[in-house]
Amino acid sequence: MHAWLCEDPVGVDALTWKELPTPQPGKGEVLIRIQAASLNFPDLLIVQNKYQFKPKLPFVPGSEYAGVIEAVGEDVTELKVGQSVACLPGTGGFGTHALAPAKLCMPLPPGFPPADAAAFIMIYATSHHALLDRGQLKAGETVLVLGAAGGVGMSAIQIAKLAGAKVIAAASTDEKCAFCKELGADETINYSTQDLRERLKELTAGKGPDIIYDPVGGDFTEKAFRSIAWRGRHLVIGFAAGDIPAIKINLALVKGASIVGVFWGDFASRESKANAAAMQELAQWYAQGKIKPLIDRQMPMSELKAAYERMNSREVKGKLVMVN
Questions:
Q1: Could you tell me which residue ranges the Enoyl reductase (ER) domain spans (predicted)?
Q2: 214 with 236, same domain?
Q3: Which of these three, 220, 246, 265, is where a domain ends?
Q4: Model confidence pLDDT, tens digit, residues 4-62
Q5: Is the peptide bond prior to 245 cis by the omega test (within 30 degrees of 0)?
Q6: What is the residue range of 168's domain?
Q7: In angstroms, what CA-CA distances link 162 with 105, 209, 299?
Q8: Which of 4, 40, 259, 288 lies 20 to 30 angstroms, CA to CA, from 247?
């Protein structure tokens, strides 16, 4: 097998494409021939040693992928050789093969393309857990999605609309705002050229959004939170802007608002039955054509560094997928 190996987590340039022994699955594991792997923001942080999960060196990055099972280990009874699966183990995706815990594999129904499957679990599971579980979104409420043209933003727009919400999508360019409209957003804000708070006042008649979906962080977090509606919920998804913001806690008091942490990975392991039900619902929505990841582009696995560069340039709309 071949894979991109991170031996020193100092950045993307240190990754090397190497031939490695093809591993054999151990107890509870499966060997997957990777067909597609998506590039997510944590995949950048992890090779920079900035992610909360720090794998043992050396490791193969690539948190999410899809492929075909080539071998199964001891005690694996629910999966079989030749079966198509998607997996989100956190590492291992940027190569030709990977070992994965069987319990983290999602069996794919016929007709689920590998590129879609590789771009599915992280963004849709995160947004389902964020909006419907942690945010308790109700039909008729208003959702502000920051970083709306990215992967999780895209999924948040689709799921919020399915729940009957009004969606305001905020992005950094007019092109990205137009993309958000195509995804179903009711209104958009270009926060590079428009004042976020003033535009929110206009679009909500001064009330503010009921839910803020925030995978961005940085300067936008406080600006958005100052505009939140009474009893609003600010969902903390991540910090794509790079800076972790500090909010004065009195703002939550005067707004009667909640700052709600969203960590799907721990939710999935701590509340596995609830997560399994959510994943089943998401798979049904996909089969019914209600949700679908928009692929910015598919690139050969050999061009991983170019894909990282494209993601880091903030040019991506939807998801980047590497294919073998």
A1: 11-322
A2: yes
A3: 265
A4: 999 999 999 999 999 999 999 999 999 999 999 999 888 998 999 988 789 999 999 99
A5: no
A6: 122-265
A7: 26, 17, 30
A8: 40
